[in-house]
Amino acid sequence: MTRSHLFVLALVLIAAGVIGLGAAASADSGESPETAAATVDAANGSVVSLSPASGSNGQYADVNGNGELALTFEDLNEDAETRVDGVFTVGVTASESAEISVESDAPGVSFYWGDDPSTDAGEPRTVQPGSDVRVGVYVDSFDDVDGGEFTVVAQTDEDDEDDSSTSIVDADVSPTEITVGESATASATIYNEGSTREPHTVRLSVDGTVVDQRTVGVDPGDTRTVTFERTFQQPGEFEVSFGWLTAGTVTVTEPASGGGFEVSNASLSPAAIQPGETTTVTADVTNDGAETDTFVAELSVGGVVVAERAVEVAPGATGQVTFERSFDQRGQYDIAISGSGAGTLAVESETATSVRRYGSEYGWLLGALTVPALGGAFVAARRRQRLVDGDR
Amino acid sequence: MRATRRNVLVILGVLTIAGGALFGTGAFTTAEADRSVSIETADDSDAVIGLEAGNSEWVTSEDGQLTIDANKLNRNATFDIEPAFTVENNYGEDISNVNISVTTSGDAPSITANTSDFNLPATESQAVALKINTDDLSSDSYDVTLTVEADT
């Protein structure tokens, strides 16, 4: 026997974190948690935030320019199993608890909960509202690894929606950095897993307000992509989403010469009416640019844009935009003009709040349950086998 | 019946279908987010846990990987190799309670790391000694697992 070496070293490199469960974003990052976190947003508030963990292992997670969490491991030992505890956190920002799971499509990469590698993050874990769960990363580099994609799945209970076989499976927006007056294109891909052609209403949300919507038919087993073009007239960061799915964050900057509009002092009068009566909503619109320009103001009721009105404003001046709207249904309605809140309108002082749920996705339950279970078995089997015949 | 791999998969399939039927009547909302993970590997000497062979004949670096070359070990002997290798902290921050353990399977030779837990500031190295006992050893290939565990 002429083997040059008799023994083979298999490396198991383990970096265990001792820093406990922390806030979703580190307090000294100089950014608010919202900007540091990648979010999966719903029209009525974000569902889940993905953030680098607060411990030093959070160095392997970063939120990239698209506002999406990305994991980067450089210089891992070859032919080794590397375990890194607590790399990122999944926080539930919705008002109800969610079943969270993390599924890996990247060869050699698996995920586990917190600092316990015997758990499988592909198996859903219930996370309460306002809480988060830490996720560790296991990398098996006995075969070639270079990364890939992983999927964070959040599932919440819904009790008042009918079922549907269509759902949005992909969302994107580009470009993500524009100047005021320019447009970005948002696209949503809808998949119909049913056996009949189904209509699907796609609702485009900006900062949680539905600003546009379109209904398209999707053939069974087919996908269809719907695009929206959106012009941004106000500077700032805007979260663009389709229902639960975040398409991305669009950063709108002012040109060096100044520009854009500001909307302020939105108000509502009267704030309480009887069904069938009319209320008046007003706001100030300031033109920060150097030329007279037209601003298209949007009135939103209950998180949905219901009316638009153009107002021309001289440079440096402030104009006023007014909407009049009547309400037939009793209830309480949140009213805003182009992101500036005007308050809550009470129609005959009902206590019930209006239900605002948009773009909910269904039909993924089976996929969400079966994929982690089978994936976990495959990963475990493969790892055992590698350990046994890790002869190289 | 032996629990073959195929059997396990069949059982899993039945379980998951049953789960779908169980919960399928409720209404759920699911959000999915695809994210990317990027991984690069490096030679042991440059990796996040840097492993560099010492000056001994027995522990060497081959193809960038730490290796015990046991053709040069006498049988029925005990070797104290000091230093066998060094651990370098390329993690970027201080790590503490670094624990080195060596496990072997079956009738492989006994290998122990002669070190207690230590702290390792960023970019610094620590030498580790190995004790290898080759009593009753037959000529064969053995899997040896070296585990480096540290608090970050």
Query: Rounded to an integer, what's the Rg of chain A over CA atoms?
Result: 25 Å
* Strand content range of chain B: over 45%
Number of alpha- plus pi-helical segments of chain B: 1
What is the average per-residue confidence, as pLDDT of chain B, rounded to a whole number? 73
> Can you give the helix content of chain B as a percent range?
10-25%
Uncertain segments of chain B of ≥5 residues (pLDDT<50)?
1-27
CATH architecture of the domain at 49-151 in chain B: Sandwich
Largest sheet of chain B: 4 strands, antiparallel
Task: Give the distance, in angstroms, between the N- and C-terminal Cα atoms of chain B.
Answer: 46 Å
Task: Summarize the structure in words.
The complex is a heterodimer of chains A (392) and B (152). With 392 residues, chain A is mainly β. Chain A has three domains: 11-159 and 365-388, no CATH class; 166-253, Immunoglobulins (Immunoglobulin-like, Sandwich); 261-347, Immunoglobulins (Immunoglobulin-like, Sandwich), CATH 2.60.40. Helix content of chain A is 7%, strand content 55%. Chain A starts with 6 loop residues before the first strand and ends with a helix. Mean pLDDT of chain A is 73; it is low at 1-38, 41-45 and 349-392. Chain B is mainly beta. Chain B has one helix spanning 5-23; strands at 27-42, 49-53, 59-62, 65-68, 78-89, 95-104, 110-113, 118-120, 125-133, 142-151. In chain B, the strands form three sheets. Chain B has a four-stranded antiparallel beta sheet with strand order 2-5-9-7, with no helix packed on it. A three-stranded antiparallel beta sheet of chain B has the order 8-6-10, with no helix packed on it. In chain B, strand 3 and strand 4 (65-68) form a beta hairpin. Chains A and B meet through strand 1, strand 2, strand 3, strand 5 and strand 6 of A and helix 1, strand 1, strand 4 and strand 10 of B.
